Amino acid sequence: MGTHRLMDPRASSMRRLAQHLDAARRSDPNDRRLVVFCLDEALVDPARPGLIEVIRWLQLQPSTFVAMVSDRPPHHRREVLCALDRLGQPMRVRFDPDLVRVGHESPASAVDGFRRDGYRVVAVVGRDPTMIGALARADDTGDLLLFHARGPADPPVAAPQVIEGEHFDLTTLVGMDDLPSEVSLVWHGVNDVDNLQQFLASPVEWGECDVRRDPRGRLVLRHDSFATAPWTSREQLLPLADVVAALVDADRAVKLDLKDGPDVLAEVTALLDEHGYPQDRLWFNASIDVLGVDGFRRLRWIYPRAILQCPVDFLTPLLLAMPTQARDILSSLSDWGVDRLSLAWGADHLVPLLDRLQGWGHAVNIYGVPGLAPFLRAALLLPHSLTADFNFPQWGYHGRGSGEGCLYPTPAESGAAA
Hints:
The chain has 2 domains: 3-173, Rossmann fold, CATH 3.40.50.1000; 176-417, TIM Barrel. Strand 4 (120-126), helix 6 and strand 5 (145-149) form a beta-alpha-beta unit. The strands form 2 sheets. The chain has an 8-stranded parallel beta barrel with strand order 7-8-11-12-13-14-15-16, surrounded by 4 helices. Strands 3-2-1-4-5-6 form a 6-stranded parallel beta sheet, with helices on both faces. It is 37% helix and 19% strand. It contains 16 helices and 16 strands. It is of the alpha/beta class.
């Protein structure tokens, strides 16, 4: 039976593509599965939104490869390869030149050629309805899914192995279970009871809490400083001790963002030790000016197996223009015990920064991701960890955020941000 017959016809076109690939993988995990794209307009003009993200996701699947077929003349091959490099750079996509076919070869001939090269061609994506229809009529394997990436005026193609769609939408292609397993996920701003309960009900491994000392001298969870946002009687502060106890009972890992500097370290470490928190389930974050060299070194001495993180957005100009000087600063941070660097999602030149830092052997966290679609794009970049509010109504998550500025996002705002 062809794998395309196993798809749920009620699912979106993107989800049906994912189901087809999963069925092909399960039928023979050792195959080299190939998805062929015949989208010439994506080679030299602005790509259709979401296309490169879908290609990135495909390339991250086990034993799955992506080929591009262009009917441009053979002497345009270098131009096509350069265009593909530009297209792929924002999502760290690299195209294998051996899987880029440029010439007057028809898509059907290209598919046959890839099969002779030992690939199992499981899907072809293209806009031309005539080409899609011809491939459907010629396919006798029952194994080939044809994705008609139609434009608004294109006629549909009626065939059992054809699915139709105008959009390449990551949010309908990738679910929670499809995220790269090597990226650690962090639920940001577990600073109130509602957020704590939602985090504990989720499969997210790490919960991040903002630690401050309140006007009464207690350690509580709050993003904003009491000096800039005074405490009022209407605000219910969550004690750090209560959250630590709840996380230990639930066997959850904790990321503590230390907002008030090294003065709280003695009490924080005593609390963690009292509850017997395993070191490999501890993660501390602080900016350099807040915790300082002595604070980082003290934490590293107490918890040699914990993660110590600091944001390095301030280093962006040096990382791009003066890498030698930037590397010296990063070496100093490593000497202090810092072993995780953090970059904001909206940072300029994020991918070059990620390439440089990871190329130098540093673990990198991405934070400040505003919605589900950006979250998925960030996850596909393969940082070591990803911190987000998890305000993703599409997945049934309604994370409240950290309460920065005494503001909490709504599901509608999350959808707009995505």
